[in-house]
Amino acid sequence: MRLLIISDTHLPKRARDLPRQVWAQVERADAVVHAGDWCVPEALDALEARAARVVGVHGNNDGPELRARLPEVARATLGGVRFAVVHETGQAAGREKRCAERFPDTDVLVFGHSHIPWDTRAETGLRLLNPGSPTDRRRQPHHTYMTAEAADGVLSEVRLHRVDPA
């Protein structure tokens, strides 16, 4: 399975739409994982209309309509890999240990909120991924997103991509 991993799109406040480069990845992906802060329901609608599958959660900037449609924690098995998705995991210090305790039956935890790309492993083997943001880089040098492959219970080809200036 080809995966697109995104978060913190903040539409339409930080951008009117997802970058063309990200939409191209949506078209290629078997599933899109979104770790929250969509900001408007239309962002979810647009992604659901174009993606083969969406696994998403609401974030702290998402209002009542998005909270009614999306869970705080999503779980999905993609290519035999057990994923959990949340928006916020708390401070960076101790994140791996906290998340491994909270998600003991998970292979990969996708999270957002900080807009800071992250790819680490807990002692238990849990992999933690934050794709940054394709539309709101905050203090990061680039807008970013991730792609990955999931097959036979193995996550591979995890790549952080910079969004090319339009």
Question: Topology, pairings included?
Answer:
Layout: E1 2-6, H1 20-28, E2 31-34, H2 41-50, E3 54-56, H3 64-69, E4 73-78, E5 81-86, H4 95-102, E6 108-110, E7 118-121, E8 127-130, E9 144-151, E10 154-162
Parallel strand pairs: 1-2, 2-3, 5-6, 6-8
Antiparallel strand pairs: 1-9, 4-5, 7-8, 9-10
Cofactor: a divalent metal cation
Family: Belongs to the metallophosphoesterase superfamily. YfcE family.
Protein name: Phosphoesterase
Can you describe this structure?
This protein has one domain: Purple Acid Phosphatase, chain A, domain 2 (4-Layer Sandwich), CATH 3.60.21.10. A 5-stranded mixed beta sheet has the order 3-2-1-9-10, with helices on one face. A 5-stranded mixed beta sheet has the order 4-5-6-8-7, with no helix packed on it. The mean pLDDT is 96. The radius of gyration is 14 Å and the shape is globular. By secondary structure, it is of the alpha/beta class. 20% of the residues lie in helices and 31% in strands.
Helical content class: 10-25%
Largest sheet: 5 strands, mixed
Order of helices and strands: EHEHEHEEHEEEEE
Low-confidence stretches: none
Mean pLDDT, as a whole number?
96
How many domain units?
Answer: 1
Number of strands: 10
Radius of gyration: 14 Å
| Ends distance | 28 Å
The number of helices is 4
- In terms of structural class, how would the helical and strand content be classed? alpha/beta
At CATH's second level, what is the architecture?
Answer: 4-Layer Sandwich
CATH class: Alpha Beta
CATH superfamily: Metallo-dependent phosphatases
Main β-sheet, spatial strand arrangement? 3-2-1-9-10
CATH third-level topology: Purple Acid Phosphatase, chain A, domain 2
Morphology: globular
Percent of residues in β-strands: 25-35%
InterPro entries: Calcineurin-like_PHP_lpxH (IPR024654), Metallo-depent_PP-like (IPR029052), Phosphodiesterase_MJ0936/Vps29 (IPR000979)
Keywords: Metal-binding
Family: Belongs to the metallophosphoesterase superfamily. YfcE family.
Domain Calcineurin-like phosphoesterase: 1-151
